[in-house]
Amino acid sequence: MSDFPLIQWSEADTAHSARWRSEAGVAPPKRVVIADDTTTADNAYKLACEGTALLYRGDFQNARMLLQAMARRADRKKAKQAQSPTEAFNLHRMAQAQRARTLGMLLIPFDAGHLIPLRRAPEVHDACLEAYGAADEGYVTSLRELLGLIGAHEWRKKGVEIPALGSRIHPYYGVFSPVRGEYVDLVARIDLPTGAEALAFDIGTGTGVIAAMLAKRGVKRIVATETDPRAIACANENMQRLGFANRVEVVKADLFPQGRAPLIVCNPPWVPAKPSSPIEHAVYDPDSRMLKGFLAGLTAHLEPKGEGWLILSDLAEHLGLRTREQLTEWIEKAGLKVIGREIIRPRHGKASDADDPLHAARAQEVTCLWRLAPV
User: Does pTM top 0.70 for this prediction?
Assistant: First the structure.
């Protein structure tokens, strides 16, 4: 843990310091005061908005209630009226970032071994170990991040039901959970190209859900690629659970593995914007880097009569962040042609939530599987 930065504060006229943990890469706050069960939500929220962090010394459950009260105050802020879908998206992202910064100012101390030295604190050793690894000394993290770790640990234990797969996928912390499973339905229902029964590539496998779907459909060998060590471990564990470990090889590679395949599938991040935390890399792809890289390299890794399956939501188009013409231009520039398209509408709650800031775009969204082949 010596590689982690220090957070410093004064308590009872004595200087203190501890290691700072932030999976989102947030720098340790410069100003820290002590909070306890007497701290009011109004005062805590005011200090947090000013950039002052509050290190809690009291009852853990009271700290949770304080965070909830701060969240209610943050949510009262009226959003500026957007003049376009793109402005609505940018304002929404700015509001999300500000909310995360403010709520991230309520801090929790830890002793070595991931123990919380507060009254009524839960046992969180396993959740923290999965995300942080071993802790041989004390540290400080935000309560908001800790609650995220606990939630991710529960998802990892119980898994996410994937109806098309007929099984559960167990996501790790920091690996995007396939809670929006409609894209798996597309992979499940489209006819496999000739030769794909023998070999397929799954580019950016994440939890391994698409590789698992291909294995369920009878593909004898799947090479799944990833760059994130957590995702590699997660995909490998899911293949073991599902009984596909002898058919799915998960390798570390930026996009494509070595060789060619008759079927190559990729579900890249859908929105060309900058991620603000590690898990957002599964949703936000700056300058469409992964999308462009997949298209540009596809012909070099497809067998002559093979197909590339690009799975992509058109939400970015409805937000004004990318046009359909740009996408088709990238496809043509890569020496590819479109030989088929299958679409499916999202089933998640935000698609029908009129109060969502991006409702106008989400209401039009569809997810498409583009069947691509060399010209």
Answer: yes
What are the tens digits of pLDDT across the range 150-181? 999 999 999 999 999 999 999 999 898 998 88
Q: Given phi > 0 = left and psi -120 to 50 = alpha, else beta, which region is 214?
A: alpha
Instruction: Note down the domain range covering 106.
Output: 6-155
186 and 293 part of one domain: yes
| Phi and psi, residue 92, nearest 5° | -65, -45
Confidence of residue 263 (pLDDT cuts 50, 70, 90): very high
Per-residue confidence (pLDDT) for residue 219, from 0 to 100? 98
How does 333-352 read in b/e, with b if 16+ C-beta sit within 10 Å? ebebeeeeebebebeeeeee
In sequence order, what are the residues at sequence separation of 6 or more whose Cβ sits closer than 8 angstroms to the Cβ of residue 285?
268, 269, 270, 271, 272, 273, 291
Pick from 277, 239, 237, 5: nearest CA to 130? 237
Strand partners, 110: 139
Structure confidence at residue 351 as a pLDDT band (50, 70, 90): low
User: Contact at 8 Å (CB) between 344 and 182?
Assistant: yes
Same domain (yes/no): 174, 135: no
The whole-angstrom separation of Cα 214 and Cα 262 is 13
Same domain assignment for residues 120 and 82: yes
Quick one: 125 and 219 in the same domain? no
Domain boundary among 105, 130, 155: 155
d(CA 199, CA 201): 7
Q: What does the pLDDT average to over 259-279?
A: 90
Asked if 151 and 175 sit in the same domain, the reply is no
CA 97 vs CA 27, 31, 90, 218: distances in Å:
14, 19, 11, 43
What are the angstrom distances between the C-alpha of 374 and each of 98, 204, 294?
A: 45, 21, 13
Domain co-membership, 272 together with 336: yes
pLDDT tens digits along 25-44 = 899 999 999 999 999 999 99
Number of domains in the chain: 2
Residue 201 pLDDT > 90, yes or no? yes
